[in-house]
Amino acid sequence: MTVNTALCFRGKKILAPMVRVGTLPMRLLALDFGADIVYCEELIDIKMLQCKRVINEVLETVDFVAPNERVVFRTCERERHCVVFQMGSADAERALAVAKLVENDVAGIDINMGCPKEYSTKGGMGAALLSDPDRIESILTTLVKGICKPVTCKIRILPSVEDTVNLVKRIEKTGVAAIAVHGRKSLVLSFFCLLERKKEERPQHPVHCDVIKAISEAISIPVIANGGSHDFIKEYTDIETFQKATAASSVMIARAAMWNPSIFRKEGFVPLKDVMQNYIKYAVRYDNHYTNTKYCLCQMLREQLETTQGKKLHAAQSTQEICEAFEMADFYEKSTAIFEAKKTSSETEIKDEDDQLEDPDVIKMAVRFDKREYPPQITPKMYLLEWCRKEKHPQPVYETVQRPLDRLFCSVVTVAEQKYRSTLWDKSKKLAEQAAAIVCLRTLGVPEGKLCEGENHLINKRKREDQEHLNNRDHGEDIAEPSHKKANFIEESSDRNVPKMPQ
After folding, report:
1. Which residues belong to the active site?
2. Which of 40, 113, 303, 406 would be a feasible disulfide site paired with 155, CB 3.0-4.6 Å?
C-alpha cells in the first residue's frame, strides 16, 4: 500500500494531544494562531469501534457517535488536512479497524505510547506499551501497511539513553512517518536491562533535551520534541530554542498551548480575554459540551479563577451561563437562533425526502426490527420468503435507499405486486429490509417468527433437516445439503449498492 506523506512533520509547530483539552474548539483555535498540525485527545480503540460516522449537516461536521448518542470525536473540513487522530490501543487489529474508520476525515494516525495515566496503561496501552516492543512493532507495522495516511507514535524516554535509542530505531523500521518524544521518563519496567521500576517523572522534573537530541541524531525520520513547556517555552521565540536544544525536526506543545494557544502566534501573545472569547465562539459554533468548554477555560484562567469572572465560570452549568460570564450573551442568542433555523431547514429536507418515497399504493406502518424478539437465525425476511414460496409468488424484491442527511436507510419490499415499507428509517440496510418484511407480514396476517408467537415452524423444519443430516451421516451417505433446502433459510437480498437519495 502506498503511504500518503502529504503531511510533513519537519519544521512544524504542533498542538500536543491532551485529554479533555484537544477537542475541536481548541484545535481550531491553535490553527488560527499558527499551529501547523493539531493532535486530538487520546481516544480508546474499543470506544471508537462502537461509534457510527454521522454527517452533521447543521454543524457542518463529521461526528463519530457512540450508541448512547454521545459524540466521541468531532471534526470539520477546516482541519481535515492537519489533524492527527491519536488513539489508545494495545491490539493491532483493533487499531487498524479504528484507523480505517476515521482515515478519510483526518490527516494522520498516531498511537499513544507515552501516557502514564492508569486509564491508559491498565489496558496495556499508553506507556505500558514501552515494555512490549514486539507489540509496538505489530501495531505500527499493521497500521503502516493497512492505511494510506501517515502513521506516527508518541513515546516517553526509557530509563537509559541506550534503551531509548534502541527502541526508536526499531520503531523507525516499521515505516512510521515521525516519532514524538516526551523528554521525561515513564513508570515502566526496563525490558533491556534489569527489571527495575523507575519513578515516573512529572512536569516539574527537567526535560531531558540530551536524550531527545540523541534520538534525533540516531534516526532519519522526523523527531518531534515534546515536554518543554515547564523549562523552555514561555513565548513564541522559545519554541525555536527548544527545537535547537533537542536537534528535533519539530516541536509539540502541550501545557503552554493549553494555558494560552496564542503561543503559536509569531507576533506574540494575544490578550487572554480575547483568546477565551474566541475559544467560546468555537465552542458555541460546534456545540461543544459545556463541561468540556468550562474545563478548558479554567485551564486558561489559572490564577484568575478566584476573580469575579472566574467564580462565575466555576458556577456556570450551561454554555449559555458560560457566555454570560464572559459578556457574550448576545453572541449566544444569535448563534442559537442560527442553529435553530438550520435545524428547522434540515428537518424540512428530511420531510421532503420522505415525501419522495410517498406512494399511495405503498402500505406503511411505523415498525422496527428488534432481533431480541426473535429466535436465533430466524427473521421476518425468512418468514416472508417461505410464505411467498408456499403461495407460489415470486420471491420478495427489496429496494433500499440511503438518506444523505443522516445516512439512515429505508426499504420498500414488493410482494405479489404490492409494496410495503416502514415509516421509520434505520441505521443499516439489513434492518430496513427486515422492517419492510414485518410490515408486509403483519398486513397479510402471517406469522413473522417472533418468540411470543409460540411454536416456530421454521425452527421445527430446521430441526427435522438437521436430524436428516445426522441420519445420513450415520448411514455413510453424502451429507451435503441440497441447494433447494439451503435456500429455505437464506435471506435473499440484492447485492447491488444501496442508492443514495439526491442531495
Report:
1. 115
2. 113
